[in-house]
């Protein structure tokens, strides 16, 4: 249903739940389907990767000439038709990270470009709203609630055990 809507009408999506419940897989599947069906580009970042890239924009004195400024990097994040931010939480966000994510989500909402976030929550969580408020902070959660859908992903991890010996089997 989300893919059937014009991109400017699509909501932000927040997939949350315990590790291994398919949050990242669903986000990537939506991005692939958008690329195949609508030729819409997407960009996938883990929060850690995004933080490293953002930090590199602050190297004014020794920055290489090909690295973007902070404003150029923000503009890039806003211009991407579909932005996926994976593993947004594992613990409470710092104030800087929460403020930065709020800025990105706010600017993307004004440009009517959907953002997909995945959040790891405790398996034993009973009060989703309280857990999300704690992980995202009240401002970011409120911003996402304005134009977003929160989808709980429940159950046990669906990941299978991997070993090198499986790779070599005929």
Notes on the structure:
By secondary structure, this protein is α/β, with parallel strands linked by helices. It is built from 7 helices and 5 strands. Helix 4 links the parallel strand 3 (82-86) and strand 4 (115-120). The longest helix is centred in the first third of the chain and has 16 residues, at 23-38. The chain is globular and about 45 Å long. It starts with 11 loop residues before the first strand and ends with a helix.
Rg computed from alpha carbons, rounded to a whole number of angstroms: 17 Å
Measured distance between first and last alpha carbons:
40 Å
Q: Helix count?
A: 7
Strand arrangement across the biggest beta sheet: 2-3-4-1-5
Structural class, by secondary structure, is: alpha/beta
Element-by-element helix/strand order: EHEHHEHEHHEH
